[in-house]
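We close this part of the discussion by returning to an individual protein. The encoding preserves chain order, so positions in sequence and tokens coincide. The sequence in question and its structure tokens are set out directly beneath this paragraph:

===
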Amino acid sequence: MKMAFTTLGCPAWDLDTVIARGSEFGYDAVDFRGIQEEIDVTKLPEFNSAIAETKQKLEDANLAICGISSSLKVCDETVAEANLEEAKRTIPIAAELGVPNIRVFGMGNAKENSKEELADIGKGMMEQVLALDGADQFKWVFETHDHWIKSEDCKLLLDRVTVPIFGALWDMGHTTRVGEEDPADTLAALGDRVFYTHVKDAVYDPDQENAMKDGWKYVPPGEGQLPIEKALNLLKERGYDGYVMFEHEKRWHPTLPEPEDIMPKFVSWFKGLNL
């Protein structure tokens, strides 16, 4: 397995700092979810007019790009046009940079539609996305997120979009903390369709300062109550050799530790697992 981090964890850093620090700390790759004020990297000159320079900087630092985390909401029929426009922007950039994974969300109106109906919408949307020129070069990964955290719900879409380049992004914090699933049960449902992973840890203590609305507070990996080590070992048993991305959500939770403090801790913890 290979170590990665997300730019969600370092929202104040410019591209040069992202590359320099990621390499310095010993990461294998970075997942781009915005840089500084812009959440959509496809709109930045570093990924358009200056993309050749960006590619060279990454190569010089021996840092790969493991993913581009898009904002596509494939089960929301009201944003179909926006989904396709973003996909069209993302595909050539991801191809130029050799990106293996493009993340998509499910979303959709769960109050007016059943999960089965939303999965049907998602199937139609992904068929349109995958029909775009160049879309077949990547793994398109559907995150266990929003109201698609339960693995049995995710499986509804996975069973409808059966092409081998469409799979799951297993956010272990979501399925255990929010979905209340044991990692073995999640993996039994998702099976060999897990192409990518997000890792974070948390403790439940609603009285703690900076606890989230559900009473949980993020802590460094290995210091919390989430069974992330168990989940990673289960993946190892299945032969998973992809990226394990440390999802430090500093952009959304500004009181979390600074990236220069927390990012090296993930590297030390992960190396100690001997995966």
In short: The chain has nine helices and ten strands. Residues 80-97 form the longest helix (18 residues). The mean pLDDT is 97. The chain has one domain: 2-272.
